[in-house]
Design brief:
5-stranded parallel beta sheet, Rossmann fold, single chain, alpha/beta, 452 residues, 4 domains, Helicase, Ruva Protein, domain 3
Length: 452
Amino acid sequence: MRGKILIVDDEQTMCEMLADDLERHGFLPTWSISSEKALDLLKTQSFDVLLADLNLPKMNGIELCERIAANRPDIPVIVITAFGSMETAIAAIRAGAYDFVNKPIDTEFLVLALDRAVKHRGLQEKVKLLDQALKRSHRFDRLIGESPLMRKLMNRLERVADTETSILIAGETGTGKELVARALHKRSRRCKNPFVAVNCAALPHSLLESELFGYKRGAFTDAKADRRGLFLQAHGGTLFFDEIGDIPLSLQSKLLRSLEERSARPIGGTSEVPFDVRIIAATNRDIETAIQEGQFREDLYYRINVIQIDLPPLRERGTDILLLARHFVEQFAIRANKQIAGISNSAAEKLLNYSWPGNVRELRNTIERAVVLTGYEKISVDDLPEKIRDYKASRFLLESDTASELVPVQEVERRYILHVLKTVGGNKTVAAKVLGLDRKTLYRKLEQYKVD
């Protein structure tokens, strides 16, 4: 069923004709020949759209729109107008109508209008439910989500938070890896002690080594005093290695030894200094592939990856996108000292359709920008960046009716492998699982197809 439609027209013949047409197109129609009876039906039954003629006795279509807008704003109204009466149609829109169709009615045009209205109502209901869900949403510290993926993730985090086990958090850039690491620390028995983070990708080799292990006075030119490394600064707490997949190979053996011995020797020092830290690491790289390529030590990988936490990309979290968006609207509206009620249905639809390559970080920045720019009580489509407004999802097509467009089987395989790799963010381990191949076979095919 495409939707439940309430038809209102003072001519019974017109009602029956419209009902027959809509039923053939998969709708479930009900009709009434008076506005008053239609309002009574709305009190006792549920409808997706109301389709009303403007020229009704006693209470005309404009007045009916006003009544419904006041009492049942959740039900979109489509009005039927005489051909060419644009002023009347505009008056109906101002009175709260969602759309209008002209007489004589083009059934295909009417069906399209009804489909849009049904979709509009569904999205409106979804936003309403998300408002309620935000108040009772599942949370793990600052993590928010209602999707099955996030519920499963939070359940797993609850189980591992108050342990001493080393954890590797894997996920695309912007999925909130450091947020998860901090949440785990706050829920652990080490929560009153330091949480120390180091970005392995942001520091050059020499500086990263001195930051981690510290140094003794005179160890190098600028070492004018002893400095405690991050291992010792995090003593009793948690040391978080962000983007550990980018740590230099030459430093990995020293790091592994320190993690195994639970002690660190400062640069220029002669003795080991013991430390007590819990290790949490994060990466957006496919470390198993890096191991195969000789860029990461396998023994270090197993040392840091006792338990792996996989963060889902935002595009796989469904209506969590709107849940997070509403949360960010509230957050940034307070900062901007603006009264913003939420997100319009059309803007919400754009947010749901977008692929979010930058994940939650990109969504957060998008909403912050929209809150600053908007001049309305709700975020509109015009407040969103152009790339989100104009986004159209790509599709991988195999079929063609034109012989010249058909390609060999090997080319189909090459395109599909590339499509899967792009979809999983370049993670070869995940891509191999999706394709039903072992990693060696995938590497061989990538080499065969000259894919870097």
